[in-house]
Design a protein that fits this description.
Blueprint: H1 3-24, H2 32-35, H3 48-69, H4 76-99, H5 103-124, H6 129-133, H7 136-155
């Protein structure tokens, strides 16, 4: 299968799954629980998140397509598996943070995504340099997301470790 055919599957699937993860978990400023939190001063406006994530998911889908297309590359199967594990954690973040109202576990998930993305960049670089470089903006955004997640957790001590609090309204 050609790279273009693979990308025509991986890019829309990556964007769609990311979008569904956010919609089904009621993520973002439309979430009453989230709006009730003390948010960091460096929190971007609501419109920035769908724009950024759409671009990042396109990059992730292209990177995955390049990796799938790298037939015969040593360790390709393991790299695809690692990539998919990282994506599963990515798709779990919104349901955990927004759906379960658990910024503490959310922060652990972001940390895992950062570690896996660094590993992917290093391991994919010799296989497909462009695929590895497409992960760099994603890594930068994950670091920013970790800072946001940390500040939300630090600035809202009323959020219990299990992500539930009587002080914060549920939707």
């Amino acid at each position: 299968m050609s790279f273009l055919r693979i990308a025509l599957l991986t890019v829309p699937a990556t964007v769609l799954l990311g979008t569904l993860s956010g919609i089904l978990s009621n993520s973002g400023y439309s979430n009453a629980w989230f709006r009730s939190l003390d948010l960091p001063s460096f929190m971007p406006p609501a419109w920035a998140f769908p724009v950024a994530w759409t671009i990042l998911y396109i990059c992730l889908g292209l990177s995955l397509a390049m990796l799938i297309h790298a037939r015969g590359a040593a360790g390709r199967g393991r790299l695809i598996g690692l990539f998919l594990v990282q994506m599963a954690i990515n798709y779990a973040w919104s349901p955990v943070f927004f759906g379960m109202r658990d910024p503490s576990t959310g922060l652990y998930l972001v940390g895992a995504m950062i570690a896996l993305t660094v590993a992917l960049i290093v391991l994919i670089m010799p296989v497909r340099r462009a695929a590895a470089l497409l992960l760099v903006p994603y890594l930068a955004w994950l670091c920013f997301a970790a800072a946001l997640n940390y500040r939300v957790l630090a600035d809202n001590p009323q959020v219990a470790p299990a992500g539930r609090s009587a002080d914060i309204p549920l939707d």
